[in-house]
Amino acid sequence: MINADGSKPELRRSLITVRARLTADDIAGAQARLACRALELPELAEAGTVAAYVSVGSEPGTRDLREALRARGVRVLLPVLQDDNDLDWGQDEGPGRLVRARRGLLEPDGPRLGPEAVTGADVVLLPGLAVDRRGVRLGRGGGSYDRVLARLDRAGAHPALVVLLYDGEVLDEVPGEAHDRPVHAAITPSAVHRFRSL
């Protein structure tokens, strides 16, 4: 059981500890179920462009979902971490076109599309450690996606914001701040949780 009381750093440590206990089979099974659940989401069914990310380590797996989206003809954008922790974007051309990058990340090897490319996405899939019943997402604390969300606001872009999580990571409350932008939905292997409409 995750205890959501306390500070963001304490909650992050607790959630990361739980994820570290997952086996490779746990992660692979959750990835397949997560993709099936996500593909039921109307926003993804209607999307022409999706900003996603390449999961690493014990994060909820995104490979199956990205491959299914590309098979549907969806343009999938992947983040490229810049030196200042902001995100540039490249197009997902498949697993053979990913290269190792800083912090153990995998990034597309093709042309960079610029940080503003995300403003053209119909759906933005966000990594996270937890979300609460208000849609407040708890990230890892690097601030990269806070910048993405601020960029979307400045551009007047309104994509569906969806966080991918494991079951048990939808909490009653996570510590939030005034600048936090709630997500519209969270997808877990067993359910879609909606928090606000588009």
Automatic annotation (TrEMBL):
Its cofactor is Mg(2+). Its EC number is 6.3.3.2. It comes from the Bacteria. Belongs to the 5-formyltetrahydrofolate cyclo-ligase family. Keywords: ATP-binding, Ligase, Magnesium, Metal-binding, Nucleotide-binding. One of its GO terms (molecular function) is 5-formyltetrahydrofolate cyclo-ligase activity. InterPro entries: FTHF_cligase, FTHF_cligase-like_sf, NagB/RpiA_transferase-like. This is 5-formyltetrahydrofolate cyclo-ligase. It comes from Streptomyces milbemycinicus. It catalyses: (6S)-5-formyl-5,6,7,8-tetrahydrofolate + ATP = (6R)-5,10-methenyltetrahydrofolate + ADP + phosphate.
